[in-house]
Amino acid sequence: MRFYRLNEAAGSEPVTAADVKLYARVAHSVEDSLIDSWIAAARKLAEDYQHRSYVQQTYRMVYDSFPPSEIEFPRPPLISVESVKYYDYEDNETTFADTNYSLDLISEVGRLSLNYGISWPTVTLRPLNAIIIDFTTGYGADADAVPDSVKNAIYVYCTFMYENREAENGTIPREFYDLLRPDRMAIY
User: Fold this and answer.
1) CA-to-CA distance for 26 and 16, rounded, in angstroms?
2) Whose CA is closest to 77, among 48, 101, 60, 56?
3) pLDDT averaged per 10 residues in sequence order, the chain, 188 residues
4) Rounded distance, CA 115 to CA 141, Å?
């Protein structure tokens, strides 16, 4: 079984309240904290819809047993793999050396592949959460590298929320998804 979770969230959002206010032609700062919350909500919604990470963040992927010789990473683009660790049945932690595998940071979906002649260790693993891989994804450490289509989708969402305070829960402008759809990843 494989699952992953967010370990360390991005340190910033793809856009700022000032960016949204410029786009939406808002001249005051009374509602900046509300706009900030809409930015965070729009970014989360967009990341979940596209199955991507925008600003650099760290995830942890966990397997119960050794995975195949090639691993695909969720939430592209992959920036790096910090560690690959495994735990034996006595709960002893061992780091799998990074010289044992190669990373594909070029493909749309980042991959880890065992090097020629390398296989996973033959060790009895603990029954659950035996393999832990920490990895970093995103377009970069700040918003500069985030695609404009993503930023524009966030502007559309925030402007819609600003102009439609009484909108029914779940109402999201179609243009939001139209901007994100071309770069949406298939779930794997």
Assistant:
1) 13
2) 56
3) 90 96 93 95 96 97 94 96 98 98 96 96 96 97 95 97 78 94 85
4) 29
